[in-house]
Amino acid sequence: MKRAPGGLRSARCRRSRLSLAYIAFCAPLKYELGGRYGCPVCMDMIVILQPAEPDDVAFAYEVTEAAMRVYVEQTWGAWDVALQLVNNAKSFDPSTHHLVLVDGKRAGIVATVCAESCVQLEKLYLLPAFQNLGVGSQVLLKLFQSSTFDGKAVRLRVLKVNEAAQRFYRRFGFVVTSTTPQRVFMEASPAQRHV
Q1: Would you say 125 and 67 are in contact if contact means Cβ atoms under 8 Å apart?
Q2: I need a labelling partner for 34 at 20 to 30 A (CA). Which of 115, 134, 169, 191 fits?
């Protein structure tokens, strides 16, 4: 890929097809999110968190496979469909899950579990067509601004091989609290969170 002035690649936004070099250097308004320039078309996306229904379990599996299969295979060597279907059915609770809707289209799933002193972010998975567009950032910001998160630390875990997820969460103030051979555990206190 060619580099534009200032070192930005001459790539195009996957959604709007606008040149990122145009967005960063020529557009009269610059849109910035998490220290990165974003496409003005994508920043205008309407992202809504809709409470899940019991029949959304199949969509939850679809999103989980699309977002996590490559990392599961890198970590454990195989994606066992039967095991993953069972795990998805066991972990899917409509009271803790929300669908991520982007301009009215189902784009992903997010799950949180509230405890007295913290909120556990169990899942934030997006379909590939909605990744790297700022949707995950908007979801995380919506969660941070929710009254459920007031005054509470947010904890999560990611697979160690998923370095992109670790970078994403670090941008929002998460720090590593512990690791295992397969996982990285992260936390953001209210003071650490970047909203």
Answers
A1: yes
A2: 115
